[in-house]
Amino acid sequence: MRFVGKFAAALLLIGLFIAAGFWALGYYVSGKLKGPDPVTIASASLQGLREQNRLSAFAARFVAVSTSTQSQFGLSTRKTLIMPGMVNYEVDLAKLQQKDVTWDAGTHTLGVTLPPIEVSQPQIDLTQMREYGDGGILSTFTDADAKLQEANRRAGQQELVRQAHEPVPINLARDATRRAVERSFAMPLTAAGMDVTVKVRFADEPKDNSEIWDTTRSLDQVLKNRK
């Protein structure tokens, strides 16, 4: 009887080891079947974006028309300058931090808050500049032409900057940048077989109370909780 008791205890112990082995195997297989972690993928995408430093997803061409007049000795002369220029709209991706990316596991939504759009100085197309004027005696015998040209170029630069900061081009630049960043985060997640929604906003945009950023946790918070 004592032998039978020991044999039964040994069988029970072996059974426990086998059960523990199956549980560990099941846990491992379950983890594998769940697929890759969206937070880990998003963190890798974030690092890749930051390494790009600056993103320029939109550029616009503007044309400024300025007219100046010079008067001396009872005479006057006038010149008009047509000045085209190209402006780039950029985002400094190096400023992105993990706290700027949020994850809502309930809705499978990734939120990204970008730094504000930066507008470059206009790049003047010298080959397309056109100047028109009356000429006359004042232009021939004084430096009126040089003064008019300087005044028109200064006014043209200011006009190009004003046009570049108008709401329409700023909104177009935001939309183009938003789409580019959404694709950068969505593509690796989709490739991993995940159905994830990516929403991008800018830090200087008003925040809607119904938006996900009020309830989600940042990648920084998620990763800290895992440690």
UniProtKB/TrEMBL annotation:
Pfam families: DUF4230. It comes from the Bacteria. InterPro entries: DUF4230 (IPR025324). This is DUF4230 domain-containing protein. It comes from Sphingomonas oligophenolica. The lineage of its organism: Bacteria, Pseudomonadati, Pseudomonadota, Alphaproteobacteria, Sphingomonadales.
